[in-house]
Amino acid sequence: MQRQGIGGSAVIRIRAAGSVLLVAHLLFVAWLTLRPLDVPWVMPTNLHPFAGIRADLRLGWPEAARRIGEDLALLAPLGLLLPLAHGRPSVSPLASLVRTATAGALLSLAIALLQTDVPGRVVDIDSVLLNTAGVALVHAALVPAARAWVGRRGARRDRRTVEDPAQGLTPTIPRVGIAP
C-alpha cells in the first residue's frame, strides 16, 4: 500500500536505518553508563536540581564546559533518532518535541535508577536534566529541517511523475467505503 507524501519503500528504508542507529546508540549509552567504575571514592548522590551544574561552573570554563557538554551530548542523538525511527512526517512540531523530550527524560531517569546498583556510579539529577535538554535541543534544531527536506523531496518526486508521462503515473487505489 502506498503512503501519502514520500513513497512507502523510502519510509521503510528511513525507519529501518533510524531503528538500527537508535539501537546502536542505546547499546553504546548502556555500555558507557552502566559499567562498573573502579574508583577510590564516590561523590554523594545529588538530588538537588542545578547544584551539580553550579559546582561545575565554579571549576572554571574548560572543565565546566567539558562536564556540562558530556551530559548534554550523551543522549542528544535521540532527538533525531527517535523521530527518524518511529516518528510521523506530518505531526505538530510542538507535539513531536514534547514526545521526544519526554522519551529522553524517561530514558535518562531509567539510566539514573539503574546506576544505583552499579559500583562507582551515583544518581545525579543534573545529568537527567542536561540529558533531556540535549535531546530537546537536537530535536528542535534538526527535525523540522529534516521534515521540510523530506517534504520537498517527496514533492519533487510527485512533480516528476506527473510531468514525465514516459515514466508512467503512480498507480493509486481508490478508497472504498463500507456500505451501510
Automatic annotation (TrEMBL):
User: Does this entry carry the keyword Transmembrane?
Assistant: yes
Q: What Pfam family is a match for this entry?
A: VanZ
Query: Which InterPro entries does the record associate with it?
Result: Teicoplanin_resist-assoc, VanZ-like
Keywords tagged on the record: Membrane, Transmembrane, Transmembrane helix
Q: Which residues cross the membrane?
A: 12-34, 128-150
Residue intervals of the VanZ-like domain: 23-140
Q: What is this protein called?
A: VanZ family protein
Organism equals Streptomyces phaeoluteigriseus
